[in-house]
Design a protein that fits this description.
single chain, mainly alpha, 5 helices
Protein backbone atom coordinates (compact mmCIF):
# COMPACT_ATOMS: atom_id res chain seq x y z
CA UNK A 1 0.00 0.00 0.00
CA UNK A 2 1.12 3.59 -0.58
CA UNK A 3 0.08 4.73 2.90
CA UNK A 4 2.63 7.12 4.35
CA UNK A 5 5.81 8.51 2.78
CA UNK A 6 7.68 6.15 0.48
CA UNK A 7 11.01 6.41 -1.29
CA UNK A 8 11.22 6.25 -5.07
CA UNK A 9 12.61 2.67 -4.95
CA UNK A 10 9.76 1.59 -2.66
CA UNK A 11 7.21 3.16 -5.01
CA UNK A 12 8.78 1.45 -8.06
CA UNK A 13 8.62 -1.88 -6.22
CA UNK A 14 4.93 -1.33 -5.46
CA UNK A 15 4.33 -0.39 -9.09
CA UNK A 16 5.96 -3.64 -10.26
CA UNK A 17 4.66 -6.05 -7.64
CA UNK A 18 1.32 -4.94 -6.23
CA UNK A 19 -1.67 -6.95 -7.37
CA UNK A 20 -3.94 -4.04 -6.42
CA UNK A 21 -4.60 -1.65 -9.30
CA UNK A 22 -5.41 1.28 -6.96
CA UNK A 23 -2.10 0.81 -5.13
CA UNK A 24 -0.20 0.75 -8.44
CA UNK A 25 -2.00 3.89 -9.61
CA UNK A 26 -1.22 5.76 -6.37
CA UNK A 27 2.43 4.65 -6.56
CA UNK A 28 2.64 5.86 -10.18
CA UNK A 29 1.14 9.24 -9.25
CA UNK A 30 3.58 9.64 -6.36
CA UNK A 31 6.53 8.77 -8.60
CA UNK A 32 5.49 11.46 -11.07
CA UNK A 33 5.94 14.07 -8.31
CA UNK A 34 9.64 13.25 -7.88
CA UNK A 35 10.92 14.48 -11.28
CA UNK A 36 10.10 18.18 -10.99
CA UNK A 37 11.69 18.30 -7.53
CA UNK A 38 15.08 17.11 -8.74
CA UNK A 39 15.18 18.25 -12.37
CA UNK A 40 17.06 21.54 -11.91
CA UNK A 41 19.66 20.11 -9.56
CA UNK A 42 20.19 17.05 -11.71
CA UNK A 43 20.66 19.10 -14.89
CA UNK A 44 23.19 21.32 -13.10
CA UNK A 45 25.07 18.25 -11.86
CA UNK A 46 25.22 16.76 -15.37
CA UNK A 47 26.58 20.04 -16.78
CA UNK A 48 29.25 20.28 -14.04
CA UNK A 49 30.32 16.65 -14.49
CA UNK A 50 30.60 17.07 -18.27
CA UNK A 51 32.57 20.31 -17.88
CA UNK A 52 34.98 18.63 -15.45
CA UNK A 53 35.44 15.66 -17.80
CA UNK A 54 36.08 17.93 -20.82
CA UNK A 55 38.64 19.91 -18.80
CA UNK A 56 40.43 16.60 -18.23
CA UNK A 57 40.40 15.80 -21.96
CA UNK A 58 37.41 13.47 -22.16
CA UNK A 59 34.39 13.81 -24.45
CA UNK A 60 31.94 13.86 -21.52
CA UNK A 61 31.46 12.39 -18.05
CA UNK A 62 30.42 9.00 -19.42
CA UNK A 63 33.63 8.81 -21.45
CA UNK A 64 35.57 9.72 -18.29
CA UNK A 65 33.83 7.03 -16.20
CA UNK A 66 34.26 4.30 -18.81
CA UNK A 67 37.93 5.23 -19.24
CA UNK A 68 38.61 5.18 -15.50
CA UNK A 69 36.66 1.96 -14.92
CA UNK A 70 37.52 -0.08 -18.01
CA UNK A 71 40.78 1.45 -19.18
CA UNK A 72 39.40 2.49 -22.60
CA UNK A 73 36.99 5.17 -23.78
CA UNK A 74 33.34 5.03 -24.72
CA UNK A 75 34.10 4.95 -28.47
CA UNK A 76 35.93 1.64 -28.05
CA UNK A 77 33.16 0.36 -25.76
CA UNK A 78 30.47 1.22 -28.30
CA UNK A 79 32.57 -0.37 -31.04
CA UNK A 80 32.76 -3.58 -29.02
CA UNK A 81 29.01 -3.52 -28.36
CA UNK A 82 28.28 -2.88 -32.03
CA UNK A 83 30.46 -5.87 -32.98
CA UNK A 84 28.54 -8.07 -30.54
CA UNK A 85 25.20 -6.87 -31.89
CA UNK A 86 26.22 -7.31 -35.50
CA UNK A 87 27.73 -10.74 -34.89
Amino acid sequence: SVDGPKSAPQLRTLLRTSADENTRERAWKELRKVGPCIADGLCALVKRRNAMARALGFEDFYDYKVSKTEGFGKKKLFGMLDALRDG
